[in-house]
């Protein structure tokens, strides 16, 4: 299941990423199963992230966001603050837009 000399195929990158991130196999297990070096598996997993095959998202627990919002509101004398965890770019913008829409909706219902 090796890629060509030009590099791994997209199918191989998807397979490696699925085995590692979804199935929870270690890089060594994947290397043995696919007859690759563990260092090659590591490089290919990085390439899968770099090529956009894998997206890593970290979601801050709501309680931490609430704690930060309370601190902001207190520090700046606000009635309410909303903290949105997200990453820069489109994903972060979407998270802010969703939070803004939720806030406006909650105010309209009150």
Question: In words, what does this structure look like?
Answer:
This protein is mainly alpha-helical. The chain folds into two domains: 10-50, Arc Repressor Mutant, subunit A (Orthogonal Bundle); 62-109, no CATH class. It has five helices and no strands. It has helices spanning 10-22, 27-34, 38-50, 62-76, 90-109. Helix 1 (10-22) packs across helix 3 and helix 2 (27-34) crosses helix 3 (38-50). The longest helix is centred in the last third of the chain and has 20 residues, at 90-109. The radius of gyration is 21 Å and the shape is elongated. The termini are far apart.
User: Tally the helices: what do you get?
Assistant: 5
Mean pLDDT: 88
As for the number of domains, it is: 2
Strand proportion, as a percent range, falls in under 5%
Structural class: mainly alpha
Q: In one word, what is the shape?
A: elongated
Order of helices and strands: HHHHH
Record field, number of beta strands: 0
Task: Give the low-pLDDT segments.
Answer: none
What is the oligomeric state here? Answer: single chain
Helicity range: 55-70%
| Computed Rg | 21 Å
Largest sheet: none
Distance between the termini: 59 Å
